[in-house]
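Notes, p. 3: input format for complexes.
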Amino acid sequence: MSTNLTHDPSLRCWVESANVPGCDFPIQNLPFCVFSEFDEEAVPRGGIAIGDQILDMAACADASLFGGRAADAVFVAAQSTLNELMSMDQDHLSALRAEVSALLSGDGHTYRGIPLPRNILYPMDGAVIYLPTRIGNYTDFYASIFHATNVGSMFRPDNPLLPNYKWVPIGYHGRASSVSLKETVIRPHGQTKAPNESAPTFGPSQQLDYELEVGAFIARGNALGDNIPIGDASESLFGFCLVNDWSARDIQSWEYQPLGPFLSKSFATNISPFIVTREALEPFRSPVYARPEGDPAPLDYLNDETDQAEGAYDIQLEVYISSEQMRDAELPPMRLSHGTFKDMYWTMAQMVAHHTSNGCDLRPGDLIASGTVSGPGKDERGCMLEITRRGAEPVTLPTGEQRQFLEDGDEVIMRGYCEREGSVRIGFGECRAMIVAEEG
Ligand code: CA
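Output follows (440 residues plus calcium ion):
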């Protein structure tokens, strides 16, 4: 894939909010969501974010605005989940993007001589947003070597990075049912054991954490028994979102050996509601992280020239926190970290190739997540565990409150965007949720 007319920085949209500099959803972005009105009778359907509005795929389909492959694709995009859209080939997806771009950069009254229906746009802040797909499977990787080294150094000071790390894109099967857009996360209960105690106790987690990650929705996928070769793997990525992979560190450290995290992760995973397509991200591809001298080259099944040259994505990521006291004092959220997604040790394509290398099938609408995105700098650590060194160096909030881990009432806000000379900035919107003690 390459850039095309839909990426043209000179494109303007008749939805004025899309032309405001710094807007997450200019006409060059066009991310997908599933939405409806606030109405019990409302039918969820696909939409595309444009400025502060959502372009209704069902209204576009009903009005027969598009022709050819785009007509087929918009009909599928109008469904209540995007799984089937994600099973379509790239020609259909690109055709739909091209027509939507032309529609939104047109005169705002007609398209191809057809009057635009009055209900073609819906205000984002008045919409109910749903999970974009029925997520069949969720896999969580561990692809930042900085995160792996930081965390490893706390649990195994003399052996921070396990010997498989530079050879295998490490991952585990996450829980798909608890991936959500919910605005609150209930503090999980679980078994924990302090090192100086002889037996564990059961109760609310005292070390609740977030993890800043990037997620990818799987496009066409593969049949059981087949593999997706590394050279084709990027085509299996439909698009990207932000992921907060909540983690209960005290539950995790007691349960994780020998089979890995279980209840410490499965209680909640939040995603941002808009999926930024691979095509929209085309101008922001980057060479992969340069492995330090002495690190092994990826094995052949993970090594592809194109992937090495441009398989990383230059996505800027930020995490903010807002406590109840901060909101009471009308203080803005405080930034906890920022970093870039381009310095991951493994690319998303390598994750897909590895995931399917044993014949495991990935399906359209499945979610894979990158693992916590951390960088080498102190202000680039993508979770509280790293930022506070497992509580040893608490963070001070603008109110003077201290945080080792998250408290009830803390809201975690993740943002992502891409900026590059010669391109229009595009954003991911927010992944935002608050910790509560119990369902309100
Ligand atoms: Ca994770």
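Residues 6 and 97 are 7 Å apart (CA to CA).
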